[in-house]
TrEMBL record:
Organism: Camelus ferus
Function, in words: S-adenosyl-L-methionine-dependent methyltransferase that specifically methylates the N3 position of a uridine in 28S rRNA. Required for association of the centrosomes with the poles of the bipolar mitotic spindle during metaphase. Also involved in chromosome alignment. May promote centrosome maturation probably by recruiting A-kinase anchor protein AKAP9 to centrosomes in early mitosis. Binds specifically to miRNA MIR145 hairpin, regulates MIR145 expression at a postranscriptional level.
Reaction(s) catalysed (UniProt annotation): uridine in 28S rRNA + S-adenosyl-L-methionine = N(3)-methyluridine in 28S rRNA + S-adenosyl-L-homocysteine + H(+)
Family: Belongs to the class IV-like SAM-binding methyltransferase superfamily.
Gene name for this UniProt entry: SPOUT1
Name assigned to this protein: 28S rRNA (uridine-N(3))-methyltransferase
UniProt-listed Pfam families: Methyltrn_RNA_3
Length: 422
């Protein structure tokens, strides 16, 4: 009976219930599948979020490491503009200024102060050079040439129109600093000029950074301004412009450890070099160079944030002190923390100012730890045990033309090596 009951066909009502049961079961399967898909999607989203968070942490750590690699101190150099008066022609004056610019750029000088040791030159860069002599504006011409060389080549046409002081600029050797970039060169930072291009308010401005495309920045700025731009890491190839943000001109130095050129400042006298410092607390280390100073070998360089190295003119720092109405001192040495002679036992009666920056750079002259590892910055082996022929051969092959002088006749005593004049 039980088997017949199981084999008995179901009525119309029961068949309808079985059909509804199948539909309900199919719906449950579909809902379960959707739930599994949703669960898998959420799982993938969590994994993707974790990966993005880990990537952001890695980028932040890399950025922190780059910031740790930055240089947080500055080096300033002050020299009189009267050094151009010693040049016999406009061509030589231009080339002399170019020598100073290259020496300062190679040793990563952040600021060049051109001061008037006679108190007669103009205080601005407006005007033209009026000739050689006491009435000539040598400070203005020197400052203008220094600014011209520091500016990247693709920006010079916008910032430096034709001028008499720059008529022999073709004789100048390029600085080739890190911020003087080629068109296709990749870099995190670039120098640019804000172009006069209409934009909507709050949509940012366009900057010419010397690339094939202009850069759209995050701020609306006045056209004609020189800015430092940090380019975004991710750029859209199909976009008509690049993307970037305006940053401080100090960011390449403090965050990436890049040398980003120098600034030029005019000072009316020697005391204005110290009084008009662009830093809030001024210079915490001042170094004066003179043949009457103490031997550089006995000087020790302390820790500093803003260092200033001051060079004298043809008559030394004494002339600048005597002509300054704000200084009531008889000796220049009281103005500086260190007053040193960077080339003792020199083979010439005078050290020209254009030779002084390479010879007096703190890293070379004051024996920073990078040079304390070896008694010879050029990697020379001990010369005491060499024969005369070996010494002469090594001297000519490795040091010839590098500005190294000898303290005694012949080559028996090479003396203290100085860095080369460029």
């Amino acid at each position: 009976m039980a088997e017949r009951a199981r084999k008995r066909p179901c009525g119309p009502g029961e068949h309808g219930q079985r059909v509804e049961w199948r539909k309900w079961k199919q719906q449950k399967k579909e809902e379960k599948k959707k739930w599994k898909d949703l669960k898998m999607t959420k799982k993938l989203e969590r994994q993707r979020a974790q990966e993005e968070q880990a990537k952001r942490q890695q980028e932040e750590e890399a950025a922190a490491q780059r910031e740790d690699q930055g240089r947080h101190y500055t080096l300033s150099v002050a020299l009189p503009g009267s050094i151009l008066d010693n040049a016999q022609s406009p061509e030589l004056r231009t080339y002399l200024a170019g020598q100073i610019a290259r020496a300062c750029a190679i040793f990563c000088v952040d600021e060049i102060v051109v001061f008037d040791e006679e108190g007669q030159d103009a205080k601005t860069v407006e005007g033209e050079f009026r000739g050689v002599g006491k009435k000539g504006q040598a400070c203005v011409q020197l400052a203008r040439i220094l600014q011209y060389l520091e500016c990247p080549q693709y920006l010079r046409k916008a910032f430096f129109p034709k001028h008499q002081d720059l008529q022999f600029a073709g004789l100048l050797n390029p600085l080739d600093s890190p911020h003087h970039m080629r068109q296709d060169e990749e870099s995190q930072f670039r120098e640019g000029i804000v172009v006069d291009r209409p934009t909507r308010p709050g949509q940012g401005s366009f900057v010419n950074c010397g690339m094939k495309k202009e850069v759209k920045i995050d701020k609306n700025l006045e056209p004609g301004l020189r800015v430092t731009v940090r380019l975004d890491q991710k750029q859209l190839p199909e976009s008509k412009t690049y993307r970037g943000k305006v940053v401080s001109s100090q960011d390449p130095r403090t965050k990436a450890g890049l040398y980003w050129g120098y600034t030029v400042r005019l000072a009316s006298c020697l005391s204005a070099v110290f009084a008009e410092a662009p830093f809030q607390d001024g210079y915490d280390l001042t170094i004066g160079t003179s043949e009457r100073g103490s031997d550089v070998a006995s000087a020790q360089l302390p820790n500093f944030r803003h260092a200033l190295v001051v060079f004298g003119g043809l008559q030394g720092l004494e002339a600048g002190v005597d002509a300054d109405p704000n200084l009531e001192v008889a000796e220049p040495s009281v103005l500086f923390d260190l007053y040193v002679n960077t080339c003792p036992s020199q083979g010439s009666r005078t050290i020209r100012t254009e030779v002084s920056p390479p010879a007096s750079h703190p890293r070379a002259a004051l024996s920073l730890p990078s040079l304390e590892r070896s008694p010879h910055p050029f990697g020379l082996p001990p010369w005491q045990n060499w024969s005369r022929d070996e010494l002469r051969a090594s001297w000519e092959s490795r040091i010839l033309g590098a500005g190294v002088h000898s303290t005694a006749p012949g080559l028996e005593d090479p003396g203290r090596p100085c860095l080369p004049l460029l």
